[in-house]
């Protein structure tokens, strides 16, 4: 089996460490990398934190990498740091997820059990969708974005880069959520969301 390192000894990393059986392809898990110095050398979810992110540069280039970080901006920052090292970034799509024909999934994607994605939707690189997200047809989910459990997107929704969608949030058709936006839990979006802004409520309104 190919070696795999998980960057991020948090909740997403824990899901991957405990649940390899949910995925078609199996890996030899070497451990975690994490830039939180208080975690170095300690064990989480049955795996040891063997170094910080820069430790990756000392490993065999054939080591596969999964960025197990939910927060979009932090995930993007890690990728920018390691992207030129030549590692493979496999996607982890649960066997308990449903993907229609004509769905495109990029590299480094993590799809939890219960995720459903309808036809002609594009899931770009390093997207995370937590349990029971329902994605309509002809949607686009931009790279590094994170969808918390129970997010529901109507058809033709466009989620731009590094968007953080809170638990149970939803959109009506044709909504655009701009780059780096943050959407609060249980928010119902009926209007577009500007890049870098925050929205919450029913209907969703700009806050902060």
Strand content: 25-35%
Mean pLDDT: 97
Number of helices: 2
First-residue to last-residue Cα separation: 48 Å
- Report the uncertain regions: none
**Sheet of most strands:** 8 strands, mixed
Number of strands: 24
Helix content: under 10%
How is this structure best described in words?
This protein is mainly beta. The protein has two helices and 24 strands. The strands form four sheets. The protein has an eight-stranded mixed sheet with strand order 6-9-12-15-18-21-23-24, with no helix packed on it. The chain has a six-stranded parallel sheet with strand order 7-10-13-16-19-22, with no helix packed on it. Strand 3 and strand 4 form a beta hairpin. The termini are far apart. 36% of the residues are buried. The mean pLDDT is 97.
Short description:
With 208 residues, the protein is mainly beta.
Features:
2 helices; mainly beta; 208 residues; 8-stranded mixed beta sheet; globular
Record the SSE blueprint.
Elements: E1 3-7, H1 11-18, E2 28-33, E3 43-44, E4 47-51, E5 64-67, H2 72-82, E6 92-93, E7 98-99, E8 104-105, E9 110-111, E10 116-117, E11 122-123, E12 128-129, E13 134-135, E14 140-141, E15 146-147, E16 152-153, E17 158-159, E18 164-165, E19 170-171, E20 176-177, E21 182-183, E22 188-189, E23 198-200, E24 205-207
Parallel strand pairs: 1-2, 1-5, 2-4, 6-9, 7-10, 8-11, 9-12, 10-13, 11-14, 12-15, 13-16, 14-17, 15-18, 16-19, 17-20, 18-21, 19-22, 21-23
Antiparallel strand pairs: 3-4, 23-24
